[in-house]
Amino acid sequence: MYVCLCKSVTDHEIRRLVHTRGVHTVRQLRDETGATSQCGKCARCAHQVIKDELAGVSAKKTGWLPPLCTP
Ligand code: FES
User: Fold this and answer.
1) Where are the domains of the chain?
2) 70, CA 20 to 30 Å: which among 3, 5, 9, 32?
3) Could you tell me the pTM of the whole model?
């Protein structure tokens, strides 16, 4: 799904950047993609996607994956 409509950034892209570019904060995501830099309405959801993905990385051993934020 699109997280940032202004910059056309999807949750899939954010998750990929967490692993490939070491994106761990919304600021890093903004620097990489421009997400959150226009209207800013996506910041909360972008933060949640990053947080969930980082938690998912450490939770893979247990099989638990956190839910995605709702827009
Ligand atoms: S929806 Fe992301 S900056 Fe507007």
Assistant:
1) 2-59
2) 32
3) 0.81
Q: Is 5 in the pocket of ligand 1 (CB under 6 A)?
A: yes
pLDDT in tens, 13-41: 999 999 999 999 999 999 999 999 999 99
Q: Whose CA is nearest to atom 1 of ligand 1?
A: 4
Kindly report the number of other CB atoms within 10 A of residue 19's CB atom: 11
Q: Which amino acid, 9?
A: V
